[in-house]
Amino acid sequence: MSVQRLEGRTAFVTGGARGIGAAVAQALAASGASVMIGDLLEDLARETAARIAAETGARTAAIRHDVTDEAQWERAVAQTLAVFGGFDILVNNAGLEITSLVADLAAEDIRRMCEVNVVGSGLGMKHAFRAMRPGGPAGKGGAVINISSVAATIAFPAISAYSGTKSAVDRMTRVAAVEAGKLGYGVRVNCLYPGLIPTDMGVALAQDIVRLGLAPDMDAAVGGVIAQTPLGRLAEVGDVADAAVFLASNEARFITGVGLPVEGGMGT
After folding, report:
1. In the chain, what's the furthest Cα-to-Cα distance?
2. I need a labelling partner for 37 at 20 to 30 A (CA). Which of 28, 58, 69, 167 fits?
3. Nearest-CA neighbor of 188 among 107, 99, 102, 260?
4. Which of 143, 185, 188, 191 is nearest to 167 (CA)?
5. Pairing status of strand 60-64 against strand 34-39
6. Which residues on adjacent β-strands are paired with residue 35?
7. What is the C-alpha to C-alpha distance for residues 15 and 20, in angstroms, rounded to an integer?
């Protein structure tokens, strides 16, 4: 497969300033795509975009973007089209995890995770469809990749509400794929289930597991995850990034409505 198999395409990556999002943006750019990075951390997003451009030679840009705000979705799509002249790939990566035992759940935390993880993904698909479908301002079809989680497929303690939101992302993905196919949009919709990754979010979760008394220390918290993983290690951002490039590429041209585990067998 050509390393430039996304040449001529344009991607918008939410939550792309750091972590999984930054790795996905980097991999898409290395595969030939132009990349717009959206993030609430605008300065960091611009730094990430500049670094990726310098390292890959790809065209990149960044925008401050709140996935829960519909007006900001409209602006982000319009700016992506204005800067790059197209819009073919959406990666709905922005997400929020607030750790809590079920007995201690706070309504506001649940609402906030639903806003970012569920509403944000739903609005992203809406505006991608409107732009990519025939008659839209991009109008050439494309690919939507939603970032769900292994938490949607297993029962892991202290993340019940987060697991619920990521399960919702999985279900929304499948319904959106059916609609896009039946209505002739030319847009494929899939999601990824990453395993635990030692990003800022992943490290914070491990720390919370210890704080809540579910593991005696960080080594035990991380070791417990590895023990559940047949491939015997934590996931890495590059594992998820490579899977996202595949789902965005022509090699996945007949794949839609699926969830692809990138968790070393943890959910088996």
Report:
1. 57
2. 167
3. 260
4. 191
5. parallel
6. 11, 60
7. 8
CA distance 35 to 7: 11
Residue 65: HSE in the Cβ half-sphere, 13 Å Cα cutoff: 33
CA 177 to chain centroid: 16
**CATH fold of 10-195+236-262:** Rossmann fold (3.40.50)
pLDDT tops 60 at residue 126: yes
Beta strands 10-14 and 259-262 are unpaired
Task: Please list, in sequence order, all residues whose beta carbon lies within 8 angstroms of the beta carbon of residue 165, skipping any fewer than 6 positions away.
Answer: 113, 114, 117, 118
Out of 129, 162, 185, 246, pick the active-site residue.
162
Could you tell me where the DSSP H helices lie in the chain? 19-30, 42-56, 70-84, 107-113, 120-132, 160-182, 200-211, 218-227, 237-248
Q: Could you tell me the residue ranges of all domains in the chain?
A: 10-195+236-262, 196-234
Give the H/E segment covering residue 13: strand 10-14
Q: pLDDT tens, 71-96?
A: 999 999 999 999 999 999 999 999 99
Instruction: Give mean pLDDT, residues 152-156.
Output: 96
**Is the per-residue pLDDT at 99 higher than 50?**
yes
* Residue 152 tokens, joined: 């949607």
The yes-or-no answer on residue 193 being catalytic is: no
- Indicate the pTM of the whole model: 0.97
Report whether pLDDT(1) > 90: no
